Amino acid sequence: MNPITKGKITFKIWRARRATRSQIDIQQQRRLENILSFVRRQSRFYKQHYADIPDEVTNLEAFPPVTKSVLMENFDDVVTDTAVTKAEIDEFVADEATIGTRFLDRYPVWVTSGTTGEPGIFVQDETALTILNVVPDRWTLPVLLGVEQFSRIVKNGARGAEIAVTGGHFAGASGVALMRRESTFYRNRIEMFSPMQPMSDLIDKLNRYQPAFLVGYSTVLVELAQAQRDGRLDLDPVFIAPTAEPISGPEKQELVRAFDCVVREIYGATEFFPIAVECEHGNLHANTDWVVLEPVDEEYQPVEFGEPSDTVLITNLANRIQPLVRYDLGDSITMYEERCPCGSAFPIIEVEGRQGDVLRFETNDGEEIPIFPLALSSVVEEVSGVHRAQIVRTAPATLQVRVEGTSDTTERDVWAQVEQNLHSFLRNQGISGVAIKAASKAPQRDTRSGKFRHVWSELER
């Protein structure tokens, strides 16, 4: 993308910051009509999927939803560049040496398992990447322009730290690596910190690094706030962004008190990162100028304002290489009709989000430490041949693992690697004596919520 085009997109993003609801809706509808017209011309999958729908129809509810599994099964027909194939993408993401590079020198590629438990591969184009980088700034940058904030940024060298799982083509790890590779400014100013390392190691590394900006899994940030209050951690960040997991209002206030800085939640997904960003009044605002959100029930019928959905359908209005139209994201959200006191016309949403418990174990030294759900599930999901998995703590020293393998692997080989990886991970945390048991049942959704939970405990709290 040339600088002029990128500049125009950036200008439109910032101009919409003070747009009226009517202006936002008009812009959304215009982009929606463009993307619908585009996919019907350029995507073989959508052309066939919408074959019975007249060309002049632009009402989204007339178009059938799609799921991650359907899009992955039809990957080569979904994408709009015939040079992009699932076989070559699979080779690309299997090679850790390509993390932070572009497929065909054009497209960032990110992998995810997500709340549905189905693995996914998502290709980004330049417009999608620009939206990812610029949209959050229109919410967060204005609060960082004060003298005190600027001095803290300078004091910490404008360094950023992201806490997320590393070692794969995940959006966080690969996105940071790409930024370091392509940006002279960020090359030495942004670092990844894995939540899979022992908490004491993470604290030591952050104390040495001293970030001005801290982004990461909500559960990890809450634990770091406790370490800051205890005196084990000594950071002076200017901004913290909890993401990837649910975080409550009281937990965000804990972060504010512990670090004395601006805290803004970001709700996003690999499929579309900046779905919503928190304002100064503590409300999440959906960026509906670039994404359409449809809160729906289990039959994909719309739910009323103020009612929690069974899932949410998203339509990405930016990405044209791998279009997502009425895509079942799997999260439960509540959308509100009321305006926010901050004055923004972007709609307020609440998110139930991804499901996972922080598990606490005693180390060999007698110290109780947290094991974070996204870190633990990643240990299993990274095993070759694992399609999806769930980890259940059934006793103080027992983890039961439900594994669904791919068709090209044997159950015995997959389980041996899962068991080995989990024991190795726990040993690295200083934990021994935990039994890893194979469950007789396959991974499944929660019978009450319908959500796919990755990690949870059955012990009484």
From TrEMBL:
The entry's keywords: Ligase
GO function terms (MF aspect): ligase activity
Gene3D superfamilies in the cross-refs: N-terminal domain of ligase-like
Record-linked SUPFAM superfamilies: Acetyl-CoA synthetase-like
Protein name: Phenylacetate-coenzyme A ligase PaaK, adenylate-forming domain family
The species this protein was found in: Haladaptatus litoreus
